[in-house]
# Entry
Amino acid sequence: MAEIREYDVEELRGNKKSRLKKSLIIFGCVLAAVIVLAIIVNIIKGAIFGENQGIEASGPYIAVMYVEGSIISGQTDSFGLPVGYQHGWTLDKIDDLAADSKNRGLILFVDSPGGAVYESDELYLKLKEYKETTKRPVYAAMGSMATSGGYYISTAADKIIANRNTWTGSIGVTIGTIYDITELLERYGVKTVTITAGDNKAMGSIVEPLTEEQRAIFQTLVDEAYEQFTGIVSEERGIELEKVKAIADGRIYTAKQAYEIGLIDSIGTLKDALNDMKEEYGLWDCDVVDVVYRDDSLWGRLARGVNIPNLRGGDVSAVLEILEAQGRFPISYECTLLK
# Structure
C-alpha cells in the first residue's frame, strides 16, 4: 500500500521561499557576471582605442603640442596602454588644429632623442602641410634634448628656440646593431639552417655572417636617408648643403654650439617661444592651450601611475632579447646614446 505523507503547510511555504531565494541569487549572479563582462569589454575597448578630450577653447588660441619620447608608432606600457608619443593621434590633432578657425598658431615642444625615419618624416610633412594650408606660424621649443629625428621635425618650424641646456643635432642615420653569433653557436655545437629564395633575403641574420655585398646594401639604405635629412636641414635652415654635411656627422651639439652654426634661432624657454610668437604675429589676445595625449578610459585611469616591475633580467634574458630583435633593423633618425 502506498504511503500517504502529510505535508506541513508552513514547510511547503518555506521550501517555496527557499527555491525563490536560490533563483534570485542565481539571477543576481548572472546579472553581475553580465555587468562585469560589460565593464571588461569597456576596459579592453578603452585600453585599445583610448579616450581623450578634444581641444577646448572659447576664443583664439595658440596650441602647444608635446612631442616627448621616441618618435615611433604603437608605444604601450605593461598594461598595453598607450604611453609616450602617439604618432597617429598627433597627426590627427594637427589636422584638427588646421580645421579650427580659432587656432592662430602652433608651438611644438620637443623633448625627444629622435625616432624612426618614416614617422619623423611623416610628422615633418604634416607640420609643413599645416603651415601651407593655414598660413599660421609654427615654432619649435626644445626641451632637454631634440636630437636626430627630434631635430628633423623641428626644422619645419618658422623659428627654433632651444633651452640653454638642450642637447640637439645628432644629424645622421642608423640602422641599428647587427649581431653575428656564429662563433658562439659553433662553440656549443649548435647548427642552424635558413631556407631562402634570393641570395640576400636573410641578410642581417645573427646566425649568418654579413657579406661585403650585404654590408654595402645596408649602407645604401642609410646613405639615402642621410641625404634626405641633410637636404631638409639645408633647405629649411638656409645653409649650404656642403656646410650641413660638414656638421652633420652624428655629433650632439649644445644649444650654444647649435646657435653658432645656425641650427637654431635663439636660446630660451617655452615661455620665450610663446612671447616671441605673440609679439611677432600680434597674438597677444590669444589663450594658450596645451594639446596633450591623455588616456581617460576607465582602464587608463585605474592603471595610471601604477609601476610594473621588470620581471626580466640576467644573461639569459639579455640573449633572448637579442634573439627577439633578430631581423628587425629599423632605419632611424635617433640618437642611440639618449634613447
Q: What stands out?
A: The mean pLDDT is 83.
